[in-house]
Write the structure tokens for this entry.
Amino acid sequence: MRVMKFDVAVVGASPAGLSAAASSARTGARTVLIERELASLPNANTVFDGMASAACLNVDQFSLHQVRGMRLVSPAGHILEIDARGHFLDRKRFYAHHLNFAADCGAEIIESEVRSLSRSSDGMELSLSRGDVIGARIVIDAGGVDSRLASSLGFKPMRHPEDVAWAVEVDVRHPGIGEEDRFEYCVGSIAPGWKATFSPAGDDTATLGVFVRRHGRDVQGFLDAFLKRFIKRRVDSYHGMERMKILETRRGGDPIAALPGRIVDEGIMVTGGAAAQSGLAYSMRAGAICGEVAGRAGLAGDASRKRLSEYSRRWWLELGPEYILGRASLETLRSMSDEEIDRLFLSLSGRNLLVPGGLWKKSANAAFQLTRAMPAIIPRFLLNMLRF
Ligand SMILES: Cc1cc2nc3c(=O)[nH]c(=O)nc-3n(C[C@H](O)[C@H](O)[C@H](O)COP(=O)(O)OP(=O)(O)OC[C@H]3O[C@@H](n4cnc5c(N)ncnc54)[C@H](O)[C@@H]3O)c2cc1C
């Protein structure tokens, strides 16, 4: 059995893990990134410019297809269009780039599964499936929504784990389908609690998926219903739409509304999906903050909870308000019937929902438009804000 020593060990080459490993290594801390299957790619593929720039992420060079905005579709088919430039990413190139970047920054990359995590006299100890043991002052759990590393040490990194959205997404092929210029989000009973999506990927490919909250992990039935509805809506636009080909299926959890719980303890930090920091861009930003704090603490030989809490504080200050607003919005949507959503869409039609500016300007505008369109939902939204 080989024992290897590092300042910081990152578990999981998730978007958050890749960026945590790079920023830890950049501080000069001896850093290792451990991933059980380097050939598998994380799920996320769609990102909007607003989020990417807030997360200091450059995505243009990985864009397979650019869109000019999103189309929101209500249960009865009413439409709201929002302009916001976005990209469908070449996942292979994007994640390979970030893996190489972590290695270039000095992180050692190991392909193996972490079987267990325990505390030792001089820090943390990770046992790997290939038989090695890794000793590290600080472990970063970036192993995604199903990671059990933090809970094996007795703490809960997600505040509302029951609110993870379970997703199934398919890559599809049909002549011209990837050339559309808007992402599409359908809401209401077609995907309770959140959304069903269409993301054009350029040329003849796109993805279709459902993200469902509080209906268990098996959401295939919702996808089947969504595919039928999607084909029906597009049948006049594309010849032979009924023969649209499904190429690949992906499943997983997206903790969009789950909110972080305790994400730091003595010698351990949690980031990305494992800490309910959902979304490609924002989870990479969370990983960057986490890795930087871990690297500096590792070099200083101080893995105390107090020292590592700088990560939690910085995350809540920078990104926390958006996640709280997001959860309150999704909880309000979850409480609305299809008829209420249809009425809301009709009243909002033609109004400018997205204005340029920071989070508070955007939120104030959205709140103003919502209040004018459907005053009855405002108390529900405020209650959900208070209940975070
Ligand atoms: C189907 C689907 C589609 C999505 N699409 C988008 C999108 O288009 N845009 C967007 O912004 N967000 C999207 N999301 C959300 C997004 O993927 C996540 O919120 C975000 O990328 C964070 O990833 P993650 O932390 O969940 O990690 P994951 O992507 O789940 O990665 C975790 C990694 O850790 C590794 N790992 C776990 N345990 C161990 C262990 N014990 N030892 C070694 N390795 C381990 C796994 O192999 C895996 O590689 C999507 C989510 C799903 C489920």
About this structure: The mean pLDDT is 93. The chain has three domains: 3-42+92-160+257-318, 165-254, 325-386.
